[in-house]
């Protein structure tokens, strides 16, 4: 095969990866935004105390959520170029942000299923799950989140 054909194939695959990866990421961010709007009535706090807690509510309960999101090959390619020249890896930052938001939404969903409407003492921890440390395979971001679910008083009506 001619070298220019190989170059065209490589550029075509890079463009396809850029388009597909960008579409998938934008769709996930849109889904996160919609779900965050749906759960805007849930009180989420990193305080160790229970803001607006009711006395008659069932006992608070710990809830957990785990998320693993993998980077696509194009992000890995661009990140390797960025590592070579130096600078911030914005594509990985985006990956970490999406994983963190997804984990918090899963905490909220789990609390809702259990009948609670608030989360206190929210903690989010991230980890590299098979990629950067060994330089084999795709980098993946693992996020584990936990919080205490409880009942909060509804806000007073606005006039």
Question: What count of domains describes the coordinates?
Answer: 1
Question: Which fold name is given in CATH as the topology?
Answer: Translation Initiation Factor IF3
Q: Spell out the helices and strands N to C.
A: HEEHHEE
Strand content: 15-25%
CATH superfamily: Hypothetical protein apc22750. Chain B
User: In total, how many beta strands?
Assistant: 4
Q: Identify the CATH class.
A: Alpha Beta
Structure overview:
This protein is of the alpha+beta class and about 160 residues long. The protein has one domain (about 5-150): Hypothetical protein apc22750. Chain B (Translation Initiation Factor IF3, 2-Layer Sandwich). Helix content is about 45%, strand content about 20%. The protein has 3 helices and 4 strands. It has helices spanning about 5-40, 75-85, 90-115, and strands at about 45, 60-70, 120-130, 140-150. It has a 4-stranded mixed beta sheet, with helices on one face. Helix 1 (about 5-40) packs parallel to helix 3 (about 90-115). The longest helix has about 35 residues, at about 5-40. The chain is elongated. The N and C termini lie far apart (about 75 Å). About 20% of the residues are buried. The mean pLDDT is about 85.
């Amino acid at each position: 095969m001619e070298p220019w054909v190989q170059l065209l194939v490589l550029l075509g695959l890079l463009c396809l990866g850029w388009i597909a990866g960008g579409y998938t990421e934008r769709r996930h961010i849109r889904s996160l935004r919609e779900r965050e709007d749906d759960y805007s009535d849930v009180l989420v706090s990193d305080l160790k105390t229970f803001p607006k807690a009711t006395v008659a509510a069932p006992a608070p309960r710990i809830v957990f959520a785990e998320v693993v999101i993998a980077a696509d090959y194009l992000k890995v390619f661009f990140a390797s170029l960025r590592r070579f020249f130096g600078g911030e890896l914005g594509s990985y930052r985006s990956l970490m942000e999406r994983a963190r938001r997804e984990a918090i939404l899963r905490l909220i969903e789990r609390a809702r299923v259990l009948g609670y409407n608030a989360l206190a003492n929210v903690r989010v921890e991230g980890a590299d799950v098979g990629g950067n440390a060994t330089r084999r395979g795709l980098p993946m971001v693992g996020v584990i989140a936990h919080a205490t679910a409880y009942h909060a008083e509804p806000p007073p009506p606005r006039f």
